[in-house]
Write a structure and sequence with these properties.
alpha/beta, single chain, 6 helices, purine biosynthesis, EC 2.1.2.2, GART, 197 residues, Rossmann fold, 7-stranded mixed beta sheet
């Protein structure tokens, strides 16, 4: 049986993207990287692993609806059934949400609903919390507001710096995200098989 095809959306360095594609026993095939930042390091990682990329600059399009329509066409032509956001710094609009309802997942470096949006680790550090962490959630129209799939916490110690906390959070992200991806796809495939019986 062929593997489920998935796409990763990313905007930055690609550490979560790399963790996903290097994960042993990943039960999906990453067939496309979508990146909204020409020149981002994540593109080099995709090239290293011979993963096709679609790189675009949102300002080149008249609206989000226009570029998302193109994205949907790219995803469909690649046979993508799941979309995993890994440091993609844009809200997902109706075109993608409607087409891939319940199949778009994001990872966020905080224990949502605390510290949504940009610089979540910095927000947590500024707030002086003694615990933060990682959340994996389904994507909806809001910013980091979709239903939570998994969370894992990270203690913030007295002598921590933002860099030490970031390193611990990323270590968890890199193991938790591939694990959750496998779990989601296994559950989805089991449901699909049951419906076919």
């Amino acid at each position: 049986m062929s593997k489920v095809k998935a796409c990763v959306f990313a905007s930055g360095t690609g550490s979560n993207f790399q963790a996903i594609i290097e994960s042993e026993n990943l039960n999906c095939e990453i067939v496309l990287l979508v990146c909204d930042k020409p020149g981002a390091r994540v593109i080099e990682i995709a090239e290293k692993y011979s993963i096709p990329t679609f790189v675009f600059h949102p300002k080149d399009y008249t609206s989000k609806a226009v570029y998302e329509k193109i994205l949907v066409e790219k995803l469909k032509s690649a046979g993508v059934t799941w979309v995993f956001l890994a440091g993609y710094m844009r809200l997902i609009g109706p075109e993608l949400l409607d087409t891939y309802e319940g199949k778009i997942v994001n990872i966020h470096p905080s224990l949502l609903p605390d510290f949504p949006g940009k610089d979540a680790i910095g927000q947590a550090f500024q707030a002086g919390v003694d615990k933060t962490g990682v959340t994996i959630h389904f994507v909806d129209a809001g910013m980091d507001t979709g239903p939570v799939i998994a969370q894992e916490s990270v203690e913030v110690l007295e002598n921590d710096t933002i860099h030490t906390v970031t390193a611990r959070i990323q270590k968890i992200e890199h193991t938790l995200y591939p694990k959750v991806i496998n779990q989601l796809i296994n559950e989805s495939e089991a449901t699909l098989c049951a419906k076919e019986l």
